[in-house]
Amino acid sequence: MKTSSIMHYWRPSNEIGEVLGFEKLEYTFNKVKLTYQIIKGGKLLDKYVCFTFNEGVLSLRFSDECHRSELNEFTFVDSLNPTSNKREELWPLYKMEKSEFLDWYLSKELGPGFGDKITDFVFVDQENVLEILSSYEPTVTIHESLNDF
User: Fold this and answer.
1) Cα–chain-centroid distance for residue 142?
2) What is the DSSP-derived secondary structure letter of residue 102?
3) Among 12, 13, 122, 140, which is most buried by a count of CB atoms within 10 Å?
């Protein structure tokens, strides 16, 4: 297993808390919509964050968090604590550099996909790890209710 991966903290909105509660995943060819409930300061808020990949989704990998303990061994950068490269800060969103998932995808010679650069977006919730390979950034929106979508 590749352990030289680098996890970049990804902070697309100040309203996102340190933990996310998984709500919903919608998938249609090369498009993904993820919905999470925001947990901030240990409190479950009546707010939801939606990540919408309108194009460019090449592959998904969904796994139980306890089976992905190797993530904690990677180097973490862009933390609020710049003196550490360990996963000391509780945070649910990352962009992975030197990703073995991306290496696997490219080894299948499925083509580069859409656009020039493919990013491995990593979403860690209370129980799961979801990785999305995409050549486009998602649109990130905050909602007060699940009915606002």
Assistant:
1) 16
2) H
3) 122
